[in-house]
């Protein structure tokens, strides 16, 4: 599910002017890739391209009452009647907490060299702050050791939406900078204890979703419906939390730890490949991401955003902007669906957003429109706007109905169709020198898909939620083949 607040409204605002689009923030940015682009394997992805898969704590771990874990806002939300469409919760989910060794084996069998998982903040700090829970840390130590022993690199996400409930109750969650401070302390603790083995850390997963869905529309935990001004402030706080975490990890983690956000960038792309529409899409991408990615990467809110927000703009200080724009090493982009097709306009702000036709094709999730060119254009434009030299696709994938065939197997050719087309476009991007360094397929296995419960299956491995048996779908063979050949297409 995608969306930041009122993008359409923002796009159609009149009088937006003086949009400075020039690439900035280049100098300060640490270079992850110092040399010229890697040579490509013949027709394939660059040498050293990181192939991974991804999950998150609340969606797979289960064991919500074990070993001293505190409650998260998702525990409370999923137990509130009517909130989850199929009435399920993450109480047991995939029981990964107990079956992590089996799951690491699944990653190994896939041939993936990297695994993106998230740490459950309330497992480490049951109250969100205060004393850490050693048993919580033990779990992530075991998981990381198991991954490394299997030749898989752990990529850790600090926040994938399971905010400690205590912070929600005491401070109003992300409404308060107290939560930002607690997040920085938690990040420092993780950095201190785990960066001897974890070399890449994502700070926040999808500010673009958890802020508006959690605090604006109320679809996600904590289920609040606040005013536009309050939502803007919550989003600003999320950017501040990101920046504080970057600083905390630099201060307390091993030197060389790479850090970046994992953002569901508002995916703007040209309606078709004409230079004027490409230029317009570039303007749109920057403006539509003004309230998170752009402020993180440029250290300022755009004039157009501030004008649009007016009296509802977030309150902030120059010092906060400095923290928010602490240099990152890479940018993670979660890319699923085209969100805005853009054409050039001869009036400010220089672009128009086209209406999305009702007949636009989509996968088994209604929001998941099929637009493979999204994964070509969005990284290409993002790299240009923000002068990026290391982008990771931190998520891409699709849900599918995944009914077993008469022989009991799952031939998910629709998922393969989706992945094959997206990966072909990603390969086109890397071949043209767009600095995408890796790809994390969402998801390793079917799991708790938030408000949809266990009903939307995104996994490469099928999970029977009665028996918890994991079974490879045909897409496991597909992805293994891509990884082994470092290429899609023959
Ligand atoms: C993005 C989220 O990060 C992830 O948690 C979710 O399951 C997928 N999108 C699919 O909706």
Describe the overall structure.
The protein has 490 residues and is an alpha/beta fold. The chain has a single domain (2-485), classed as TIM Barrel (Alpha-Beta Barrel). The protein has 17 helices and 13 strands. It has helices spanning 7-12, 57-60, 73-78, 96-110, 121-124, 134-149, 165-171, 177-194, 207-215, 228-252, 275-288, 293-298, 303-309, 318-324, 374-386, 413-431, 474-485, and strands at 50-54, 114-118, 153-159, 200-205, 258-263, 268-270, 331-334, 340-344, 351-353, 391-396, 436-442, 461-463, 470-472. The strands form 3 sheets. An 8-stranded parallel β-barrel has the order 1-2-3-4-5-7-10-11, surrounded by 4 helices. A 3-stranded mixed sheet has the order 6-8-9. A two-stranded antiparallel sheet has the order 12-13. A hairpin with a 6-residue loop joins strand 12 (461-463) and strand 13 (470-472). Helix 4 (96-110) packs parallel to helix 6 (134-149) and helix 15 runs parallel beside helix 16. It starts with 6 loop residues before the first helix and ends in a 5-residue tail after the last helix. The model is unreliable at 1-38 (pLDDT under 50). The structure holds 1-deoxynojirimycin. The site of 1-deoxynojirimycin has 10 residues, from loops.
């Amino acid at each position: 599910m995608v969306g930041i607040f009122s993008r359409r409204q923002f796009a159609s605002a009149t009088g937006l002017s003086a949009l400075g689009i020039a690439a900035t923030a280049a100098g300060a940015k640490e270079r992850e890739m110092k040399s010229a682009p890697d040579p490509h394997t013949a027709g394939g992805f660059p040498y050293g391209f990181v192939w991974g898969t991804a999950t998150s704590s609340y969606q797979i771990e289960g064991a919500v009452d074990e070993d001293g874990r505190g409650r998260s806002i998702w525990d409370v939300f999923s137990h509130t009647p009517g909130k989850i469409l199929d009435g399920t919760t993450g109480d047991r989910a995939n029981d990964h907490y107990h079956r992590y060794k089996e799951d690491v084996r699944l990653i190994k069998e896939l041939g993936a060299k990297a695994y993106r998982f998230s740490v459950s903040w309330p497992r480490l700090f049951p109250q969100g702050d205060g004393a850490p829970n050693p048993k919580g840390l033990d779990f992530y130590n075991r998981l990381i050791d198991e991954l490394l022993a299997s030749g898989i690199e752990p990529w850790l996400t600090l926040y994938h939406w399971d905010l400690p409930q205590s912070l929600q109750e005491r401070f109003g969650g992300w409404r308060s900078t107290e939560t930002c401070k607690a997040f920085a302390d938690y990040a420092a603790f993780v950095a201190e204890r785990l960066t001897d083995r974890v070399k890449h850390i994502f700070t926040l997963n999808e500010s673009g979703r958890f802020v508006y869905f959690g605090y604006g529309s109320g679809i996600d935990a904590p289920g609040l419906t606040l005013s536009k001004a309050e939502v803007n402030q919550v989003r600003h706080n999320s950017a501040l939390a990101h920046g504080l975490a970057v600083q905390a990890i630099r201060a307390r983690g091993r030197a060389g730890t790479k850090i970046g956000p994992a953002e569901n960038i508002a995916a703007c792309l040209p309606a078709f490949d004409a230079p004027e529409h490409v230029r317009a899409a570039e303007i749109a991408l920057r403006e539509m991401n003004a309230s998170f990615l752009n402020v993180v990467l440029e250290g300022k809110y755009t004039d157009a955003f501030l004008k649009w927000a007016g009296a509802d703009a977030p309150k902030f200080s120059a010092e906060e902007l400095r923290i928010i724009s602490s240099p990152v090493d890479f940018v993670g982009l979660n890319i699923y669906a085209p969100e805005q097709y853009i054409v050039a306009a001869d009036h400010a702000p220089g672009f128009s957003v086209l209406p999305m036709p009702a007949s636009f094709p989509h996968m088994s999730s209604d929001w998941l429109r099929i637009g493979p060119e999204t994964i070509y254009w969005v990284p290409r434009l993002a790299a240009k706007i923000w002068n990026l030299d290391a982008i990771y696709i931190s998520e891409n994938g699709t849900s599918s109905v995944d009914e077993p065939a008469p022989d009991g197997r799952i031939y998910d050719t629709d998922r393969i169709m989706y992945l094959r087309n997206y990966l072909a476009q990603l390969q086109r991007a890397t071949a043209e020198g767009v600095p995408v360094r890796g790809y994390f397929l969402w998801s390793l296995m079917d799991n708790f898909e938030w408000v949809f419960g266990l009903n939307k299956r995104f996994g490469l491995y099928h999970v029977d939620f009665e028996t918890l048996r994991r079974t490879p779908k045909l897409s496991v063979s597909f992805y293994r083949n891509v990884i082994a050949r470092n290429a899609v297409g023959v």
